[in-house]
Give the backbone structure.
Amino acid sequence: MGVFADGAILTFAMQFIGFTAAAILQTEIFYDIWGGINFLVLAIFSSVFAPDQMESVSTSGINKNVVFGGLFAVSRGWLLVFLAWRAHHRKGDARFDGVRDVPSKFFVYWMVQAVWVYCISLPLLVVAASSKAKAVGDDEPSPTQKMEYSSLMLLGMAWSIYIEIRSDVTKAQWVSRGRPGGFCTDSLWKYSRHPNYAGEILTWVFAALYAVTESDRSWESVLVAAVSPLFTMHILLNTSGTGVWNAEGKNLKRYYEHADPAIAKNYEEYRRTTPPVFPTFVIPYESLPLKNQRQFCFEWERYEYKPSSKGNGDNTK
């Protein structure tokens, strides 16, 4: 468990350093950026301090664990670039209003980010901590089957990262053009209301599956690796301050009560025919009963717009 303990110490130490600097300066401008840097430091840690565990070489001479670490770095590196751009574009973060000047509350925000960074990075740490000298039992796949399976997981992870990056870039380009149409339906946004979140969730699903393949396949390894995608889904689907819930719900006021009635009508149709996260290419989304949309497509009631009698609502992206 040394890798896990050391990774936790490193993560929380970095976030404490970030909090100290931010509290002194009373700014949150580098909060997200520091989280991205923390991810990259963990990637370096897993490869430098556990080199003897990073041995999964295919017949072509490619070390798949190195590829896995590289994909992790690309994913988090993109997050770092995107969040840095967003922080510069927004010139602040409304989440920290009334918080940045209260050290005790500000500290909690930084420690929550530490938990996020650590939980998402667990597949990387599982791979780093796995024994390279485990025997293949009767209930385990052969080395060839395992190599093929792990390769598919890496391809799935790469594909998911591409989806997230393409979605973010498409949305940023749409914003730079002046938000034509009132809401984005370009490229992947035509098939999902939040394709970037779909890519993020799938990235850690494939990462967890890869980590299980490269681990000792014990229940402990399976459960630890599963924390990453489950925690990601919780943050993006169940947390009101971020993800789908933050983008929808009361914040849909900017569409439903838009000055242009056509935008409100168009968005209502877009929402009716487009799932919130994962596309339903085979079955038209609007043909699914609402009950099935809620059960299988995350079309939860909390994401619906319910006009307030006070007429207040937030405007966010």
User: Anything to note?
Assistant: The chain has a mean pLDDT of 86. The chain has two domains: 1-133, 143-317.
